[in-house]
Amino acid sequence: MRVDIYRRAEHDGIFSYLAVPEGKNIPEEVTNTDWQLEAQASEIEDEADALPGYHIEQPHQQIAAKGYAITGLKDM
């Protein structure tokens, strides 16, 4: 699966990340936040349990459930 990755600044130089299937818009529930494009058409392997560079756990499951995957709060 290919995704576009967005990021937003949190605190103390920390970023949270959002992965959206390639070519899809950012979901409405997160459009009120200042997300900036980080990477386009990033490949997620079918067996990937995480995107460690973006602190996203279970990306395929998150995308299937809500249409996007996001950095977990425990990583903040």
List the helices and strands and how they pair.
Elements: E1 2-9, E2 15-21, E3 36-43, E4 50-51, E5 56-57, H1 59-66, E6 69-70
Antiparallel strand pairs: 1-2, 1-3, 2-6, 4-5
Descriptive notes:
By secondary structure, the chain is mainly beta. 11% of the residues lie in helices and 38% in strands. It has 1 helix and 6 strands, in the order βββββαβ. It has a 4-stranded antiparallel beta sheet with strand order 3-1-2-6. Strands 4-5 form a two-stranded antiparallel sheet. A hairpin with a 4-residue loop joins β4 and β5. The chain starts with a strand and ends in a 6-residue tail after the last strand.
Main beta sheet: 4 strands, antiparallel
Sheet/helix structural class: mainly beta
By DSSP, the count of extended strands is 6
Q: Secondary-structure element order, as H and E?
A: EEEEEHE
How is the largest sheet built, in terms of strand order? 3-1-2-6
Number of helices: 1
Low-confidence stretches: none
Strand content: 35-45%
Mean pLDDT figure:
90
Q: Which overall shape is indicated by the principal axes computed on the Cα atoms?
A: globular
